[in-house]
Structure formats: structure tokens, C-alpha cells
Amino acid sequence: MCSQALIDVSVSLIIVGKRTFAQVPAVIQPNVKATLEALGLGIEGQPLQTAV
Fold first, then answer.
1. Whole-model pTM?
2. 41 pairs with which residues across the strands?
3. Where residue 26 falls among pLDDT bands split at 50, 70, 90?
């Protein structure tokens, strides 16, 4: 079980550019990716491209 706080901190660090997705511990990467996607962001914290 992983801490939601650790996931939130990792997401925040990715968004502000202080950490890359590859630097996130592998055990929480799926949760971090899901959280980023829920925010409309890709794994590097940038907005997902939407089809027009």
C-alpha cells in the first residue's frame, strides 16, 4: 500500500518540473500516472493533447 501523500507530492513535483516521471519510484508510478491523467496531464505534467 502506498501513501496518498507520497503520490500527491510526486504529482506536484512533476507539474512544477522538479521531478520527472522516471524519477518516481516504480511502485507508485501507476498511481501517479492515473492522478496526472485525472488532472488532464500527461506523465511529464503537460496538458494532454485533445482531438479537435
1. 0.88
2. 47
3. very high
